[in-house]
Amino acid sequence: MTALTAAAAARDGNDPIFRLHGEATRRARTGESILNATLGALVHDDGRLAVMPSSAEAFSRVPPEQAAGYAPISGSPDFLDAVIADVFEGTDLAGQAVAVATPGCTGALHAAFQNFLEPGQAALTSSHYWGSYNAIAQYSGRAIATFNMFNDRLRFDMPAFEAGLAGSIERQGRALVLFSFPCHNPTGYSLDADEWQAVSTIVRDAGADAPIAFLLDNAYAAFGSGTNQWVAYMPRMIETSTVLVGWTISKSFAQYGARVGALIAAHRDQSEREQLASSLGYSCRATWSNCNHAGQIAATELLTDPELKARADEERAGLIALLRERVDTFNEAAGEAGLAYPRYDGGFFVSVFTPDSEITAARMRETGVYVLPMPGAVRVALCATPVASIPRLVTALAEGIAAARDASEVARDAGKAAS
After folding, report:
1. pLDDT of residue 413 exceeding 60
2. pTM for the complete prediction?
């Protein structure tokens, strides 16, 4: 007899991404030729994890006595100021924002679900989304609602977003919108200037009728082109709504294991900002209490020390170039192979559409190529794919999609015969 509740007993402690990654790793250790394009971590072409020496140095500089001590509940003030400046540099938004420290963007998401939705309500996001959004929402007693992400031209489906936002407001009297642009996980799509303008107008207009929090999961943004153009459209949103930004050092400083992040909240009204800071700070205390103090100190140095920041920017530029070569190589090879996927300008992932993602992924695993199946597509982690392996990857994708298409046709013919 278990003492767990029924809901707890039904939970799987592993994640599909890490499960597939573990399987691929075990096969590789036996000597098989494995291409593991599952995990969102940037690696060099020789398989070594890509790290930034400046980040390692910043952590090594932290005095042991400071690292061992508690950070303030909401985060070290210098760290929070540095993060806000990093995101909103050169704009008036920095003076209209507050923040709290979180364990990565995952912590930022958890805090947002807890504070901007009532239990049982749903956050609105696109039909393709990082699967952990659902787990975080459910564990918080909330849910995920989606709108169709792409139109028939594989552009962002703006009417679907507008209708989805109106539906959320009608059902629950409020909305928490969850976007992960630029470099969307899992599709790699980035909104262009026209799309950001339309999104910001829709949010501003809807916010005049109901409370709206617009959350931008900014985890991968440093690795795309035109990554900061979204900032120009935030002032339009905060005319009526609260703008939230999830920030993390995991990708932009190649420090996945440090679990240092923040949730920024921007609002026009000072009294509302004070309430936001208080409410989010309460969530910190009630969930993780204090975040990694050494990580906050190191991140502050990386963001504010001129010499260290310049080195970090240079090192990151090298990692962006590494990823850029893979993006360009993939786009060329995938185009020649006739693969269907959305506009892909950069980022850790791209999604390739398929009639049956499970069949596609299973066929690919037979050839030693691992990707993540999801509804309607498979996610490919180019961040973990050596450029020389991209032809193998594209061939496996084409063969896996063909197998899925054949299976779909067989099923369709069987259905016609039965009827």
Report:
1. no
2. 0.92
